[in-house]
Write a structure and sequence with these properties.
By secondary structure, the chain is mainly beta.
Length: about 130
């Protein structure tokens, strides 16, 4: 069974309710990707959240495989293959305005490294 989980749902401590209750939108801090852990342990980007930093930056695509994450600039990259989705989320999330580095594999391309600045964006609260 595949487990698809938005990294947004992993940002519990960073959620700031800023929209009226009737709007059912919440403001979150992150990069705005939905990821899936495949049965063989690969971390795949399933989709990008509209108007979130990953989409706005244009460097990350759906179907990219994340192979490593650099949580803080200057730190080493941490391989993510075989990790739980919660652990991957912990590596990717962090404070607003801080860069997260992603080592990606994209179909038909060599490995690439991209940097995405964490920022605020709005998502539906799911209710």
């Amino acid at each position: 069974m595949k487990r698809t989980l938005s990294l947004v749902s992993l940002l519990v401590g960073l959620i700031a309710f800023s929209a009226p209750a009737s709007a059912k939108m919440i403001e979150v801090i992150g990069i705005g990707v939905n990821v899936d852990i495949t049965t063989d342990g690969k971390v795949m980007i399933v989709s990008l959240i509209k108007d979130a930093p990953a989409e706005r930056g244009g460097l990350v695509n759906a179907n990219d495989q994340i192979i490593a994450v650099q949580n803080v600039p200057g730190s080493g990259f941490v391989a993510v293959a075989g990790k739980k989705i919660e652990d991957v989320g912990a590596l990717i999330r962090g404070p607003e305005g801080v860069v997260v580095g992603l080592k990606l594999v994209r179909a038909g391309s060599p490995e690439l490294t991209v940097n995405v600045v964490r920022g605020k964006f709005m998502v539906d609260d799911g209710t």
